[in-house]
Amino acid sequence: MDTQVVPAGVIARYFAARNTRGIYRSFAGSGVYTLPLNPEASQFTELLQYALAKTIARHPALCFGLVDKSGASEAHFVRLHQIEWDDVVELQTSSGPVEKQDEVLERHMEIAHNHIWQDQTIKPGWKIIVIRHANPEENFKSRVDLIWPCHHALADGGSGAAFHKTFHQHLSEGLKSPSNTSRWPHPIPPTTPLPITIEEACPLPPNASLAVSKPEFHPPWLAKPPSLSPYATRVLLLTIPNPQVATALKKCRSLHITMTSLLHSLILLYLSRTLPPSDANAFRSCTPYSMRRFSGISDDELVNHISFITSYWDPAAITALRSVAGMEGKREEDDALRRVGTQLQSEIKDELSRVPEAGCGILLALAPIKDLDAYLKEKLRVRGDSYEVSNIGLVTIRGNPTDEGDGVKVEKLAFSQCAMVAGAVIGCSVASLAGGPMMVSLTWQEGIVGEDVVRGLREWIGRRFEGFRG
After folding, report:
1. 37, 137, 140, 307, 385 from 134: Cα distances, Å
2. Predicted local distance difference test score (pLDDT) of residue 317
3. 119-128, 379-388, 400-409: the lowest-pLDDT one
4. Domains of the chain, first to last
5. GO molecular function terms here (predicted)?
6. In this predicted structure, what is the pLDDT of residue 180?
7. pTM exceeds 0.85
8. Which residue pairs from 96-105 have beta carbons closer than 8 angstroms and sit at least 24 positions apart in sequence?
9. What is the pLDDT of residues 421-434, one digit of tens each?
């Protein structure tokens, strides 16, 4: 076997097949940076080349492509010999007003999430889109957005934070020492190892029982059936300022729930009062969680070490949520928030307690699949979930300036996902930056649910965070 080829495990085979079919295409970690100056185009490119080369050298996952099964060839990773600059970097400029800059970021995120990874024997399963926003004041700090879409087989949402930690470090180095240089095409050492997979780090025990679906006595709201065409990811971003996040955390502590539970509660409150009872009497949600506590892999590494739980919100729970409409901030609504949080946290606690002996949910779900083609064909018949909340939590970037200093600063960090053809109708992906805001990314497939519904959800979450009193 070619030493550049590494067989794909069960999870990588699954994501490779979903990418090829366009069912799930990418997640992305996006950072909003400010530079203390406005470099010339050539100087800016050299700065990016240095930072990206150093980032690739730090993270082995960036050195691989993933080829799907074809004929007699099974899915496999390919260690690239080199990475071409033009294959992984897209430079964009924007001259719009400051108040529209997040909308520009949203549009570029949408385009990035529509991409299907191809030519994986010569290109890696990731790229960066860099957007320079024009600033009318010369010699004044400038805003640069960096989107890092990635094949989910190579990395998970938390890896997006790890990517930006490393990129920020080397972008800062390059700015301080302009003499730093890089070599492009970027050579890949032939000894570069594939990062440890979750199957290797947390193998299923010999006596692991297969995943069993929980009973659902009333069909959940799933909007329209899955459709591969037309496909267009839509993205809406919500920036929640740090003081509002702090107040919301006080609210969570008073209710004995987590931030993830609070977001579930707010989404369920909104959907239960926005959608008619005749269409939405129950909901099914997905909550991914990190397996790194079990695999022992640092948060600073690029790996795909996640699993998930599925929750069912029955008609009794939804009726209770509808009954507290208009009671914002009152005891009755607090009780409803607490009930949702208690159910979710109990399910997560039970799941985590079983992992050491029974194995993680994603492996239990995928390991028994003998015919991946038939499995995915069946998945396209009925949508999986009403919505998903994926919260990568608080991200601390070492050396990130806390004031108006002269360093490179990450102002905001976003985590987003492509539209999930057979998965959640609405994806809610969340990242919080230490000392900065929390970013909520809402994504959906155009035409599957009304844009007015998702825009209303963004406004609802934003208004509720503004109104929390702890």
Report:
1. 12, 9, 11, 41, 41
2. 96
3. 400-409
4. 5-193 (3.30.559.10), 218-394+418-467 (3.30.559.30)
5. N-acetyltransferase activity
6. 79
7. yes
8. 96/133, 98/133, 101/133, 101/143, 101/145, 102/237, 102/239, 104/131, 104/133, 104/145, 105/30, 105/32, 105/131, 105/145, 105/147, 105/237, 105/414
9. 999 999 999 999 99
* Of residues 56, 33, 26, the one with CA closest to residue 157: 26
CA distance 156 to 383: 22
Percent of the chain exceeding pLDDT 90 equals 85
Q: What is the pLDDT of residues 213-249, one digit of tens each?
A: 666 779 999 999 999 999 999 999 999 999 999 999 9
Contacts of 93 (CB under 8 A, 6+ apart): 131, 132, 133, 134
% of residues, the chain, pLDDT over 70:
96
